[in-house]
Amino acid sequence: MMRLLKIVLLVCLFFGCDKKAERPSAFLQTQQIKLAPPRVLTTSTIIDSSIVLSADFKMEDVKLRYTFDGTDPTENALSYKNPIQITEAGTYSFKAFHPEWTPSETTTVKIYQKGMDTIAIQLRTKASIKYPGMGAKGLVDHKKASLSFTDAEWIGFDTIAKARIDFGKKVHLEKITMAYLVDTGSWIFPPENVIVYLNKTDSIRVQIPNLKSDTLALADVEIPIEKTVQYLTIHVQNLKELPEWHPGKGLKAWLFMDEWIFN
User: Fold this and answer.
1) Domains plus CATH for the chain?
2) For residues 1 and 64, what is the distance between their CA atoms, to the nearest angstrom?
3) Which of 80, 164, 198, 241 could lock 64 by a disulfide, CB 3.0 to 4.6 Å apart?
4) pLDDT tens per residue, range 174-194
5) How far apart are CA 208 and CA 193, in angstroms?
6) pTM value?
7) What is the pLDDT of residues 141-172, one digit of tens each?
8) Average pLDDT of the chain, as a whole number
9) Spatial CA neighbour of 220 closest among 124, 71, 141, 110
10) Would you give the distance in Å from CA 174 to the centre of its chain?
11) Chain-centroid distance, C-alpha 168
12) CA–CA gap between residue 103 and residue 198 (Å, rounded)
Protein backbone atom coordinates (compact mmCIF):
# COMPACT_ATOMS: atom_id res chain seq x y z
CA MET A 1 0.00 0.00 0.00
CA MET A 2 2.80 2.39 0.90
CA ARG A 3 4.56 1.58 -2.38
CA LEU A 4 1.39 2.43 -4.36
CA LEU A 5 1.03 5.72 -2.45
CA LYS A 6 4.62 6.70 -3.30
CA ILE A 7 4.03 5.99 -7.01
CA VAL A 8 0.87 8.16 -7.05
CA LEU A 9 2.73 10.98 -5.28
CA LEU A 10 5.59 10.86 -7.79
CA VAL A 11 3.16 10.94 -10.73
CA CYS A 12 1.38 13.99 -9.29
CA LEU A 13 4.65 15.80 -8.70
CA PHE A 14 5.85 15.02 -12.22
CA PHE A 15 2.74 16.33 -14.00
CA GLY A 16 2.37 19.29 -11.63
CA CYS A 17 5.92 20.48 -12.38
CA ASP A 18 5.37 19.90 -16.08
CA LYS A 19 2.31 22.21 -16.16
CA LYS A 20 4.15 24.93 -14.29
CA ALA A 21 6.99 24.69 -16.80
CA GLU A 22 4.60 25.21 -19.72
CA ARG A 23 3.19 28.53 -18.49
CA PRO A 24 6.35 30.69 -18.92
CA SER A 25 6.83 29.15 -22.38
CA ALA A 26 3.31 30.11 -23.46
CA PHE A 27 3.82 33.61 -22.05
CA LEU A 28 7.07 34.02 -23.93
CA GLN A 29 5.38 32.94 -27.16
CA THR A 30 2.72 35.64 -26.87
CA GLN A 31 5.38 38.26 -26.06
CA GLN A 32 7.21 37.31 -29.26
CA ILE A 33 4.18 38.17 -31.43
CA LYS A 34 4.53 41.70 -32.81
CA LEU A 35 1.51 43.82 -33.62
CA ALA A 36 1.15 45.20 -37.12
CA PRO A 37 1.52 48.99 -37.49
CA PRO A 38 -1.76 50.96 -37.18
CA ARG A 39 -3.36 52.32 -40.33
CA VAL A 40 -3.47 56.13 -40.45
CA LEU A 41 -5.58 58.15 -42.92
CA THR A 42 -5.91 61.89 -43.51
CA THR A 43 -8.23 63.97 -45.64
CA SER A 44 -5.06 65.77 -46.80
CA THR A 45 -1.46 66.19 -45.66
CA ILE A 46 -1.44 69.91 -46.46
CA ILE A 47 -3.50 72.16 -44.17
CA ASP A 48 -5.39 75.14 -45.51
CA SER A 49 -7.82 75.63 -42.60
CA SER A 50 -8.10 72.14 -41.08
CA ILE A 51 -7.90 68.43 -41.90
CA VAL A 52 -9.13 65.24 -40.21
CA LEU A 53 -6.74 62.46 -39.21
CA SER A 54 -7.95 58.99 -38.25
CA ALA A 55 -6.19 55.81 -37.09
CA ASP A 56 -7.46 52.25 -37.12
CA PHE A 57 -6.51 48.91 -35.53
CA LYS A 58 -9.42 46.51 -35.14
CA MET A 59 -8.37 44.09 -32.43
CA GLU A 60 -9.59 43.47 -28.91
CA ASP A 61 -7.50 44.93 -26.06
CA VAL A 62 -5.29 46.95 -28.44
CA LYS A 63 -4.72 50.57 -27.47
CA LEU A 64 -3.44 53.21 -29.88
CA ARG A 65 -1.11 55.88 -28.54
CA TYR A 66 0.14 58.91 -30.44
CA THR A 67 2.35 61.99 -30.34
CA PHE A 68 2.31 65.13 -32.48
CA ASP A 69 5.94 66.23 -32.13
CA GLY A 70 7.64 63.42 -34.04
CA THR A 71 8.70 61.45 -30.96
CA ASP A 72 8.05 57.71 -30.67
CA PRO A 73 4.82 56.98 -28.72
CA THR A 74 5.03 55.09 -25.42
CA GLU A 75 2.24 53.52 -23.36
CA ASN A 76 2.00 56.85 -21.53
CA ALA A 77 1.45 58.89 -24.71
CA LEU A 78 -1.91 60.38 -25.70
CA SER A 79 -4.65 57.79 -26.19
CA TYR A 80 -6.32 57.76 -29.62
CA LYS A 81 -10.09 57.20 -29.47
CA ASN A 82 -11.72 59.32 -32.18
CA PRO A 83 -10.66 61.11 -35.41
CA ILE A 84 -8.61 64.24 -34.74
CA GLN A 85 -9.25 67.63 -36.31
CA ILE A 86 -5.89 69.23 -37.06
CA THR A 87 -5.37 72.94 -37.64
CA GLU A 88 -1.56 73.16 -37.34
CA ALA A 89 1.34 71.46 -39.07
CA GLY A 90 3.13 68.70 -37.19
CA THR A 91 4.48 65.16 -37.28
CA TYR A 92 1.94 62.66 -35.94
CA SER A 93 3.18 59.24 -34.82
CA PHE A 94 0.97 56.26 -33.86
CA LYS A 95 1.80 52.94 -32.21
CA ALA A 96 -0.35 49.97 -31.16
CA PHE A 97 -0.01 48.36 -27.71
CA HIS A 98 -1.40 45.08 -26.31
CA PRO A 99 -0.92 43.71 -22.77
CA GLU A 100 0.44 40.38 -24.03
CA TRP A 101 2.03 41.20 -27.39
CA THR A 102 5.03 43.22 -28.53
CA PRO A 103 4.15 46.83 -29.54
CA SER A 104 3.90 47.61 -33.24
CA GLU A 105 6.26 49.66 -35.35
CA THR A 106 5.40 53.36 -35.48
CA THR A 107 3.28 54.82 -38.26
CA THR A 108 4.19 58.46 -38.89
CA VAL A 109 2.39 61.08 -40.95
CA LYS A 110 3.79 64.57 -41.51
CA ILE A 111 1.28 67.39 -41.92
CA TYR A 112 2.38 70.55 -43.77
CA GLN A 113 1.04 74.10 -43.64
CA LYS A 114 -0.23 75.28 -47.02
CA GLY A 115 2.19 77.72 -48.61
CA MET A 116 1.82 80.87 -50.70
CA ASP A 117 0.51 80.67 -54.23
CA THR A 118 2.76 81.47 -57.17
CA ILE A 119 1.59 83.14 -60.35
CA ALA A 120 4.18 81.33 -62.47
CA ILE A 121 6.73 78.52 -62.32
CA GLN A 122 8.95 77.73 -65.28
CA LEU A 123 11.21 74.70 -65.56
CA ARG A 124 14.65 75.54 -66.97
CA THR A 125 15.55 71.85 -67.35
CA LYS A 126 13.29 69.14 -68.72
CA ALA A 127 11.78 66.41 -66.58
CA SER A 128 12.17 62.80 -67.70
CA ILE A 129 9.91 61.73 -70.57
CA LYS A 130 9.07 58.62 -68.52
CA TYR A 131 8.07 60.56 -65.40
CA PRO A 132 6.74 64.00 -66.39
CA GLY A 133 4.19 64.08 -63.56
CA MET A 134 1.92 67.10 -63.76
CA GLY A 135 4.71 69.24 -65.15
CA ALA A 136 5.97 72.36 -63.39
CA LYS A 137 2.53 73.15 -61.93
CA GLY A 138 2.65 69.85 -60.03
CA LEU A 139 5.39 71.30 -57.82
CA VAL A 140 3.12 74.09 -56.54
CA ASP A 141 -0.42 72.63 -56.67
CA HIS A 142 -0.67 72.00 -52.89
CA LYS A 143 -1.00 68.24 -53.41
CA LYS A 144 1.20 65.50 -51.96
CA ALA A 145 2.08 62.23 -53.66
CA SER A 146 2.02 58.68 -52.27
CA LEU A 147 4.96 56.32 -51.71
CA SER A 148 4.57 54.92 -55.23
CA PHE A 149 6.87 56.55 -57.80
CA THR A 150 4.19 55.89 -60.43
CA ASP A 151 1.89 58.42 -58.71
CA ALA A 152 1.23 61.23 -61.21
CA GLU A 153 2.05 63.85 -58.56
CA TRP A 154 5.75 62.89 -58.77
CA ILE A 155 7.93 64.60 -61.36
CA GLY A 156 11.16 62.76 -62.11
CA PHE A 157 14.60 64.02 -63.18
CA ASP A 158 17.79 62.16 -64.06
CA THR A 159 19.78 65.38 -64.02
CA ILE A 160 19.75 68.72 -62.19
CA ALA A 161 16.31 70.31 -61.86
CA LYS A 162 16.15 74.09 -62.42
CA ALA A 163 13.11 76.33 -62.08
CA ARG A 164 12.18 80.00 -61.82
CA ILE A 165 9.41 81.12 -59.46
CA ASP A 166 7.33 84.31 -59.72
CA PHE A 167 5.07 85.33 -56.81
CA GLY A 168 3.60 88.24 -58.76
CA LYS A 169 4.59 90.74 -56.06
CA LYS A 170 7.14 91.11 -53.31
CA VAL A 171 6.46 88.76 -50.40
CA HIS A 172 8.26 87.96 -47.17
CA LEU A 173 9.45 84.38 -47.46
CA GLU A 174 10.44 82.62 -44.23
CA LYS A 175 11.29 79.20 -45.62
CA ILE A 176 10.90 76.74 -48.48
CA THR A 177 10.00 73.10 -47.87
CA MET A 178 10.93 70.77 -50.73
CA ALA A 179 9.37 67.32 -50.60
CA TYR A 180 10.95 64.37 -52.38
CA LEU A 181 10.75 60.59 -52.61
CA VAL A 182 13.35 58.13 -51.36
CA ASP A 183 13.06 54.67 -52.93
CA THR A 184 16.60 53.30 -53.17
CA GLY A 185 15.37 49.99 -54.59
CA SER A 186 14.13 51.97 -57.61
CA TRP A 187 17.33 54.10 -57.75
CA ILE A 188 15.47 57.16 -56.41
CA PHE A 189 17.64 59.09 -53.93
CA PRO A 190 17.53 62.42 -52.09
CA PRO A 191 19.09 65.36 -53.93
CA GLU A 192 22.76 66.11 -53.34
CA ASN A 193 22.05 69.76 -52.66
CA VAL A 194 19.63 72.63 -53.23
CA ILE A 195 20.63 76.17 -54.20
CA VAL A 196 18.13 79.03 -54.01
CA TYR A 197 19.11 82.20 -55.89
CA LEU A 198 17.36 85.20 -54.36
CA ASN A 199 18.84 87.74 -56.80
CA LYS A 200 22.02 88.19 -58.85
CA THR A 201 24.27 88.24 -55.76
CA ASP A 202 22.47 86.40 -52.93
CA SER A 203 22.03 82.62 -52.77
CA ILE A 204 21.40 79.95 -50.15
CA ARG A 205 22.86 76.45 -50.45
CA VAL A 206 21.73 73.40 -48.47
CA GLN A 207 23.55 70.06 -48.56
CA ILE A 208 21.54 66.86 -48.03
CA PRO A 209 23.21 64.00 -46.09
CA ASN A 210 24.07 60.79 -47.94
CA LEU A 211 22.10 57.60 -47.29
CA LYS A 212 23.85 54.61 -45.71
CA SER A 213 21.32 51.85 -46.51
CA ASP A 214 18.15 50.97 -48.42
CA THR A 215 15.25 53.30 -47.65
CA LEU A 216 11.64 53.83 -48.74
CA ALA A 217 10.18 57.08 -47.42
CA LEU A 218 8.56 60.43 -48.08
CA ALA A 219 11.11 63.06 -47.12
CA ASP A 220 11.73 66.79 -47.31
CA VAL A 221 14.31 69.49 -46.77
CA GLU A 222 13.59 72.89 -45.20
CA ILE A 223 15.53 75.89 -46.50
CA PRO A 224 15.45 79.03 -44.31
CA ILE A 225 15.09 82.23 -46.36
CA GLU A 226 13.87 85.17 -44.19
CA LYS A 227 13.96 87.60 -47.13
CA THR A 228 11.52 89.75 -49.11
CA VAL A 229 11.45 88.49 -52.70
CA GLN A 230 9.35 88.39 -55.85
CA TYR A 231 11.42 85.99 -57.94
CA LEU A 232 13.44 82.89 -57.09
CA THR A 233 15.63 80.60 -59.14
CA ILE A 234 16.02 77.13 -57.68
CA HIS A 235 18.55 74.42 -58.60
CA VAL A 236 18.06 70.91 -57.19
CA GLN A 237 21.00 68.62 -57.96
CA ASN A 238 20.33 64.90 -58.31
CA LEU A 239 22.87 62.43 -56.90
CA LYS A 240 25.50 62.11 -59.63
CA GLU A 241 26.78 58.69 -58.52
CA LEU A 242 25.00 55.94 -56.61
CA PRO A 243 26.96 54.89 -53.48
CA GLU A 244 29.25 51.85 -53.20
CA TRP A 245 26.67 49.81 -51.26
CA HIS A 246 24.06 50.11 -54.02
CA PRO A 247 23.83 47.57 -56.91
CA GLY A 248 23.96 50.50 -59.39
CA LYS A 249 27.04 52.08 -57.80
CA GLY A 250 28.67 54.74 -59.93
CA LEU A 251 25.56 55.45 -62.04
CA LYS A 252 23.24 58.46 -61.74
CA ALA A 253 20.32 58.44 -59.31
CA TRP A 254 16.77 59.53 -60.03
CA LEU A 255 15.34 62.63 -58.36
CA PHE A 256 11.58 62.62 -57.69
CA MET A 257 9.79 65.69 -56.26
CA ASP A 258 6.12 66.38 -55.60
CA GLU A 259 5.72 69.71 -53.82
CA TRP A 260 7.58 72.96 -53.11
CA ILE A 261 5.94 74.79 -50.20
CA PHE A 262 6.64 78.50 -49.72
CA ASN A 263 5.83 79.85 -46.23
Assistant:
1) 39-113 (2.60.40.10), 120-262 (2.60.120.1190)
2) 61
3) 80
4) 999 999 999 999 999 999 999
5) 5
6) 0.82
7) 999 999 999 999 999 999 999 999 999 999 99
8) 89
9) 110
10) 23
11) 32
12) 48
